[in-house]
Design brief:
- The chain has 2 helices and 7 strands.
- Helices cover about 25% and strands about 25% of the residues.
- It is flat and about 50 Å long.
- The two termini are about 20 Å apart.
- The chain has 2 domains: about 55 residues, no CATH class; about 55 residues, no CATH class.
Length: about 120
């Protein structure tokens, strides 16, 4: 994913938080179909709010989406995307890992650039 595609996706996610159409469809619930891949859905603030409330959680940690810095906080910091592979498919992205302290629930993000280890 290029930086432009990443920014466009983030813009779409942010727009979902302020958009809705009648009829109780996906958009009304905070989702947008992923027309690029034909599977899954994009989600916005409304979907995140509902998921967190129903499951009595404070944050979502998700993965498997390349981020230029290895991680990205969105939906007001309530969703953390982690990507643990730097230089994915010849891109110049960094990698990151999330560390959660079991006792206090503190979340730390460790950012890694493996450029010096790249063969």
């Amino acid at each position: 994913m290029t930086r432009a595609e990443f920014e466009l996706q983030l813009h779409t996610l942010r727009a979902l938080g302020a958009s809705s159409e009648g009829g109780g469809g996906l958009l009304e619930r905070g989702f947008l179909p992923n027309s690029k891949r034909g599977t899954a859905h994009y989600f916005g603030d409304k979907a995140v709010d509902t998921f967190l409330a129903v499951n009595r959680l404070s944050q979502i940690i998700r993965a498997h989406e390349c981020c230029p810095e290895g991680y990205y906080l969105h939906c007001g910091g309530r969703v953390l995307t982690i990507f643990s592979c730097s230089h994915y498919c010849e891109m110049r992205n960094k990698a990151a890992v999330a560390l959660v302290d079991e006792g206090g629930g503190k979340l730390s993000i460790l950012q890694i650039d493996t450029r010096s280890n790249h063969l």
